[in-house]
């Protein structure tokens, strides 16, 4: 189909109001079709929200092909054309399954259920993305928010990978999506790539330590310090635009604090998690709403004092406007 027809069909699928689109679909060298900003897009801006064309679980190629063939017949002609116009990195005797595997995004973190979208699936990958995709389980809509400022003419990107050093990312992307990443991170000089790999390996290590419930129980102070160390690494690796990771990190810090009775710090961490979520997914997801309520009433969480009450009588200290470093050290319980 011609590009004008494709644009009209894509635009009709978007959950937009009367505002003009902030992007256009165009060919990106070595990447195929991608989305490019038509204006400067500030951090925290909702770029797209879109309903899925098809939703499915993973399965054997033949079974998936049969399921998708049946589901495609239920769609109108425009939606069928939108699906068939998506790229297929796995050509062969199961073309529908190949399109699904190439383009599907999980319906929530860790979900086995995946969905394809007529426009969002045009967004290419970067290991240093400027946007974040989020599934809203209440509205059944996928959103794309700018997590860093995007300049007019710049490509809009999201991350397809699960983290880790470049060799791990490249292998995962090749297996799952059929391409080799040449983003700004993966194509940087070897010395800088090694530094990035070291940071990303340490990020994964710290994330695992923070999620250890036994350590959270026995050494909560060390767990909070790990949260602080992870925050610094995220800022260094992602250029200060690490809200998708920070939202989770601050929620982990909230859980550590509330499990030992510290409602003061827990409330602050929940508020910071909510602020990060506002930037990368808006305030209407179930997760954002939950964290917002916990910022007001942290003791409502099911893990309140589940480990101990030793931090129960914490009092909030006063800090001046210039005392950001002192406040952060107090917040993460880092002694001088």
From TrEMBL:
Family matches, as CDD domains: SET_SMYD (cd20071)
Database matches in Gene3D superfamilies: SET domain, Tetratricopeptide repeat domain
Positions of the SET domain: 20-161
Amino acid composition bias (Polar residues), ranges on this chain: 1-14
Residue ranges, annotated region (Disordered): 1-20
The protein's name in its UniProt record: SET domain-containing protein
């Amino acid at each position: 189909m011609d590009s004008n027809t494709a644009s009209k069909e894509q635009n009709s699928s978007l959950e937009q109001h009367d505002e003009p689109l902030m992007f256009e679909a165009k060919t990106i060298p070595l990447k195929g079709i991608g989305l490019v900003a038509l204006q400067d897009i500030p951090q925290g801006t909702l770029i797209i929200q879109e309903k899925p064309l098809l939703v499915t679980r993973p399965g054997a190629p033949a079974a998936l092909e049969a399921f998708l063939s049946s589901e495609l017949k239920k769609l109108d002609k425009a939606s069928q054309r939108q699906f068939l116009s998506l790229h297929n990195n796995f050509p062969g005797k199961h073309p529908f399954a190949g399109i699904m595997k190439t383009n599907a995004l999980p319906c929530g973190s860790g979900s086995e259920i995946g969905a394809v979208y007529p426009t969002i699936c045009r967004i290419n990958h970067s290991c240093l993305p400027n946007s974040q995709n989020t599934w809203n389980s209440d509205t059944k809509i996928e959103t794309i928010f700018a997590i860093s400022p995007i300049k007019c003419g710049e490509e809009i990107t999201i991350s397809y990978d699960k983290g880790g050093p470049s060799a791990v990312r490249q292998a995962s992307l090749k297996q799952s999506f059929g391409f080799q990443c040449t983003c700004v991170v993966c194509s940087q000089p070897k010395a800088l790539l090694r530094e990035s790999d070291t940071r990303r390996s340490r990020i994964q290590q710290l994330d695992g330590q923070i999620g250890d419930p036994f350590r959270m129980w026995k050494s909560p102070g060390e767990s909070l310090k790990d949260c602080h160390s992870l925050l610094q690494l995220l800022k260094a690796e992602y250029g200060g635009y690490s809200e998708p990771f920070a939202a989770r990190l601050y929620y982990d810090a909230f859980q550590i604090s509330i499990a030992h009775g510290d409602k003061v710090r827990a409330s602050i961490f929940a508020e910071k998690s909510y602020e990060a979520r506002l930037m990368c997914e808006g305030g209407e997801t179930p997760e954002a709403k939950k964290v917002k309520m916990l910022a007001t009433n942290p003791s409502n969480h099911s893990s309140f004092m589940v480990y101990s009450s030793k931090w129960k009588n914490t009092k909030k200290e006063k800090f001046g406007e210039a005392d950001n470093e002192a406040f952060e050290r107090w917040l993460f319980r880092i002694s001088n």
